[in-house]
Structures are given as C-alpha cells and as structure tokens.
UniProtKB/TrEMBL annotation:
<feature type="binding site">
    <location>
        <begin position="178"/>
        <end position="181"/>
    </location>
    <ligand>
        <name>substrate</name>
    </ligand>
</feature>
<dbReference type="GO" id="GO:0016811">
    <property type="term" value="F:hydrolase activity, acting on carbon-nitrogen (but not peptide) bonds, in linear amides"/>
</dbReference>
<dbReference type="Pfam" id="PF01112">
    <property type="entry name" value="Asparaginase_2"/>
</dbReference>
<feature type="binding site">
    <location>
        <begin position="201"/>
        <end position="204"/>
    </location>
    <ligand>
        <name>substrate</name>
    </ligand>
</feature>
<dbReference type="InterPro" id="IPR000246">
    <property type="entry name" value="Peptidase_T2"/>
</dbReference>
<dbReference type="GO" id="GO:0005737">
    <property type="term" value="C:cytoplasm"/>
</dbReference>
<feature type="site" description="Cleavage; by autolysis">
    <location>
        <begin position="149"/>
        <end position="150"/>
    </location>
</feature>
<protein>
    <submittedName>
        <fullName>Glycosylasparaginase</fullName>
    </submittedName>
</protein>
<feature type="active site" description="Nucleophile">
    <location>
        <position position="150"/>
    </location>
</feature>
<dbReference type="InterPro" id="IPR029055">
    <property type="entry name" value="Ntn_hydrolases_N"/>
</dbReference>
Length: 317
C-alpha cells in the first residue's frame, strides 16, 4: 500500500505527480519532494514558493522542512530568500548529522555552495498583492496578517517508508525574520515509519503551542485511527487556547498512518485537502466540523472551477 495526503487543493497536481513515482515503486522522499516542488513552482499559489506573499518589507522569505520516518533524519530552512525550491534544500540538509536546520543568510550560503537554483521569488503578482494590502490596511484599518496556507504532506511508499514535508512563504506581511511552525519538527510536521505522519497548516504561532503534529503521531502510536487522532489533537488545542487566551488561531492537520489510512481535522470553515492512495485517483475534499466531528465531502466541479478562477483572477489595486 502507498499513499499521499496534503493540505489544501493547491497540492492536488503535486501529489498526482508524486503518485506516478510511487506507482513505479519509487521512494517516498522522491515522491514528496517532487510533489512539493510542483506547488512551489506554480506562480498563482500565493502562500508557497514563487509568487509567495512577501513580508512587511516586501521580501519573500521561505520556510521548508523534510523528515525521514525511517531514520528520523530532519532538514529545514527558514527565512531563506532567492532560491527556487526550499523543500529540496531542506531534504539535502537532512543528510547532515549536525547543522541540519539553517536560517537566513546561513541557509542561503549553504544552498549556493551546493548549487541550488537561484531565483527572484518576488513575482509582479505578489507585489500587486502587497500594494493592495498596504492600501487596505491604511484605508480600512484591517489587520495586515492574512494568508498562511502552508503546503504540508505525508507520504507512504510501497516499501513502508514514510516521509513528511512542508513549504511556505509564511504569514503575509510578517515581520522580517519571522518563522512559523512549518520548519519546526513536531509542530509543522512529524513522521515515524513504524506509526505514521502528520503535517499542519494555519497560524504557526498557535500550532507550535501544542507540538501538534507530534501529538497526532503519538496518538496513532497508541492505536488511535488517524482521523480520531486529528480530531482529538485539534479539538484539545483549540479548546485549551480559547480557555487560556480567549481565542485560537487557524489549526488544520492532515495525517496518514503506515497502513495508508488517513485523517483530517480543522477549526476553520472551508479547509480543503488532497489525497491519493493505491488503487484510486487523486481526490480533493472539503472538511466540515460538526460539533467536534469532521465530515469530509468531495469537492464539486463548481467549487474546483471557482477555486482556480479566484486564484488566477486579475488583481484590482
């Protein structure tokens, strides 16, 4: 059995491409890197890679992480600029025994030394989004901090190896140097091939407060189904944050165990995810929270058409 699950509709083409690798007996690491690169390279997804939304100084700072569930090898980059595929840099770092998490200038020097592709990641479209947001903040007194749709994935290959990965441009209009949960092992992602893996998207500052990806894998290690594990972890953290702090930021998690069974939970409306397992084509779902239980419904063609239409629409400044 092999399979992949990922946050958001934007990952569908990526995991479909990754599935082709898995069908041929390829490894989970190659499949997940290929899948995430597909998202990073698509200019109309404004929360990951090229075209990602910039920080308050109109710079695109990217975060990414990679974890091997067989060896627990980890690699991550944070606040890296001007490199095309941070997931590939993170995977490369997972081969290092030490110095496997690098940030800013150090991450950039490492990537340059190893010959990773340099690229100006600030697209004209992202600049337009930035100018529009600055104007809205001034005129309507809106909060600038919106947009934190990390692509997070868990992959299982036919040999039983599991891998998890993330990539994001982070919070729109974030302060220079801000890092969220995505490159933080245990929060943005975690995987153990003997159990399963999980990956998060949402408000990193709150996701990190629960080490939530690790918590889901821990629950699965006790025999809890991935769906129930996601529900327990998300509901618990959501309730705890509201009790302690009066509110909770966006929390959305996807998980898959080493049998190819999967689960999803969220505290927001309109969360979408994509999944592909052996014997089935890629499917895109919308999940709804009904009194702490989650119902996953296949996205309609109308919803899918509107999704792409919205993301590719001209920006009116």
């Amino acid at each position: 059995m092999w399979g992949m699950i990922a946050t958001w509709r934007m990952a569908a083409e990526g995991i479909t491409k990754g599935a082709e690798i898995l069908k041929k007996g390829g490894c989970a690491g190659d499949a997940i890197e290929s899948a995430i690169k597909e998202v990073e390279d698509f200019p109309y997804y404004k929360s990951v890679g090229y075209g990602g939304l910039p920080n308050e100084e109109m710079e695109v700072e990217l975060d990414a992480a990679y974890m091997d569930g067989d060896t627990f090898d980890i690699g991550a980059v944070a606040a890296i600029k001007d490199f095309a595929n941070p997931i590939s840099i993170a995977r490369s770092l997972s081969n290092e025994k030490v110095n496997c998490v690098l940030v800013g200038e150090g991450a950039e020097k490492y990537a340059h030394k190893l010959g990773f592709e340099r690229k100006n990641m600030l697209s004209d479209r992202a600049k337009a989004h930035y100018r529009k947001r600055v104007k809205e903040v001034k005129e309507q007194e809106l909060k600038p901090y919106i947009g934190h749709d990390t692509v997070g994935m868990v992959c299982l290959d036919a040999s039983g190896k599991m891998v998890s990965g993330t990539s994001t441009s982070g919070l729109f209009m974030k302060r220079k140097g801000r890092v969220g949960d995505s490159p933080i092992i245990g929060s943005g992602l975690y995987v153990d091939s003997e159990v399963g893996g999980a990956s998060a998207t949402g408000l990193g500052e709150d996701l990190m407060k629960g080490c939530i990806s690790y918590e889901i894998v821990r629950l699965m290690s006790e025999g809890v189904h991935p769906q129930r594990a996601c529900e327990l972890a998300v509901n618990k953290l959501n309730e705890k944050l509201k009790k302690r702090r009066g509110e909770a930021g966006d929390l959305s998690l996807v998980a898959m165990n080493n049998k190819g069974e999967w689960g999803v939970a969220t505290n927001i409306e309109g969360f979408s995810f994509a999944v592909v397992v052996e014997g089935k084509d890629t499917e895109i779902y919308l999940t709804e929270n009904i009194n702490g239980k989650f119902v996953h419904k296949l996205a309609t063609q109308e919803w899918l058409d509107n999704y792409m239409k919205t993301r590719m629409a001209p920006i009116e400044e």
